[in-house]
Amino acid sequence: MIFKGVGDGRPYPDHGLVSTKDWAAVAPRQVRLEDLVTTKRELNLDNLLAEDSTFYGDLFAHVVQYKGIMYLEDGLHRAVRAALQQRALLHARVLVLD
Q1: Cβ neighbours for 83, distance < 8 A, ≥ 6 positions apart
Q2: What's the pLDDT score for residue 56?
Q3: Could you give the CA distance from residue 34 to residue 48 in angstroms, rounded to a whole number?
Q4: Per the structure, how many domains does the chain have?
Q5: Which residue has the higher pLDDT, 47 or 59?
Q6: 65 lies in a domain?
Q7: Is there a domain that residue 63 lies in?
């Protein structure tokens, strides 16, 4: 299995980070794909296949750590691409809410 789990929605409280500028204050680090629980059940194939999918957004995925569980809030297409390239790690901004 690629991820720890596949979720449907955000089981953590609203954190107030909305824009890429808001997330920029969170330093990126590497996370293991197998430690992530997705917050989306479906992936838009256009996002996965687009060469410029990060052109207007953050270069890093957004992860929220809540009660010891790491939730992939944004960047599912990046994570799936990493898995398809047989990489076990993903660069992400991790917001800790514990």
Answers
A1: 2, 33
A2: 54
A3: 19
A4: 1
A5: 59
A6: yes
A7: yes
